[in-house]
Write a structure and sequence with these properties.
The complex is a heterodimer.
Chain A (H helix, E strand, L loop, with lengths): L7 H12 L5 H5 L2 H70 L19 H4 L4 E7 L15 E8 L6 E7 L8 E6 L6 E7 L10 H6 L11 E5 L13 E3 L19 H18 L1 H18 L1
Parallel strand pairs in A: 2-7
Antiparallel strand pairs in A: 1-5, 1-6, 2-3, 3-4, 4-5
Chain B lengths: L1 H37 L1
Classes of the chains: A alpha+beta, B mainly alpha.
Chain lengths: 303, 39
Amino acid sequence: LDLNINPSHNTIKVLKRESSGKLADSDVKVPVKQETGALLEELNRISAENKKLTEMLTVLCERYSSLQNQYMELVSRNSGSDATAATSKKRKAECEDYATMIGFSGKAESSCSDEDSCKKPKDCIKAKISRAYVRTNPSDNSLIVRDGYQWRKYGQKVTRDNPSPRAYFKCSFAPSCPVKKKVQRSAEDPSILVATYEGEHNHEQHSPPALSSLSPNNGTSNPRSAPVSSSSSAPAKSSPPTVTLELMKPTGLGNDTQNPTQQVDEPAIQQILVQQMAASLTRDPNFTAALASAISGKVLDHK
Amino acid sequence: EESGALVEELNRVNEENKKLTEMLAAMCESYNALQSQLT
């Protein structure tokens, strides 16, 4: 830091002359008035320097304060982003809670289905992910994609990046079939439904006969929803009917305007559930063996 | 007498000047450190 200040140069000279005690012959000739004038001049010069230094210090203090304010702002903003990360963690936990609520096992469904809130989707999602785009009527608020499988809706939420809510479905054969589906209207084009599938079905696409009879569109796809494209091997082949069972009351926008043809009566739902349970039990060879032995035991007892 | 008082004043102002220069140097250092933290 060089401020072009050399305050001691002239002063020392003067002070030396003052403190030397003995005055040289040349000094004797210098009049006292002249000496006082030189001292005064020096004092003025140093005072001006002093003033300049004080001003510089004031300016620097001001700049330092503003810089410090900027720094504090930055620090508070960073802590704000930490809070956002905490919110994201909370969302992930909520999402896992959904999985627990619907009875998914922790091993197969340890992944979070929310791609947005999950920072490491590759680590998080082990299941195969595919996407299908379906064009629908924009006035139709239902988030139903007819893909040939039966689905149960287990949740719905509003995401930050899209005004339309996102609906969560699981395959009706769950927990034996681990496939899950997310459906949301495209943010760019609301007439397109984006369905994201996780996992692969481990069963046939066809529906049980009892369900077929319940469906209003037997064997035909909904005329309002026609597949636009499929990004991979998503089950977009639409022919068998789809019945979506509303196990949870939707919380999103405009769900009260759902198509009445897609609603199923409550006794019918119960019947479907009973039949599905029976179907899943009869698929289990251990159960059928146990049942057979129990029946044969009863028969023998009776005899 | 007058020149003695002047010399005294000169010494005082000189001392103040020195302190101000030191303060300014310290302030500059702090400012630079903070700026480097920000960048």
